[in-house]
Design a protein that fits this description.
This protein is 32% helix and 16% strand. The chain is built from 5 helices and 5 strands.
């Protein structure tokens, strides 16, 4: 049996949109869904930092700047771990070093789908 590679604390059902206002969040992965979740979290008042291993297209850079989302490209620095929690895009494997470092630091790590559920009406 494979252990769950994510450390989720507290359970996401306890997350409120009000709590996001004071949160520092890192989104790992800058493809379409990473950009979308970064914008969503920013719209809720979170301070968002996006960390992309590769290069971001000019259009994605423009979107992040317009949304007031800080970002890095070309790898994941220590700044990616200066967060209250981390959100991982679907294309980022849980074995990625940045995800493993977050887990070792006991940072909560959530999937984008989990984060999107916080914005759904019950």
């Amino acid at each position: 049996m494979i252990a769950n590679p994510y450390t989720l604390k507290p359970p996401a059902e306890n997350m409120t949109l009000d709590a996001l206002q004071d949160s520092r969040v890192t989104v790992v992965g800058g493809a379409r869904s990473g950009i979308a979740v970064a914008r969503l979290l920013r719209s809720a008042g979170a301070t968002v930092f996006l960390s992309e291993h590769g290069v971001l297209a000019d259009e994605r850079v423009r979107i992040l700047r317009e949304a007031n989302v800080s970002f890095e490209t070309g790898g994941h620095t220590g700044q990616a771990l200066e967060a209250d929690f981390v959100v991982v895009s679907p294309g980022v494997p849980t074995t990625a070093e940045v995800v493993q470092r977050a887990i070792r630091r006991a940072l909560p790590v959530y999937s984008e789908v989990e984060v999107a559920s916080w914005f759904c009406l019950a």
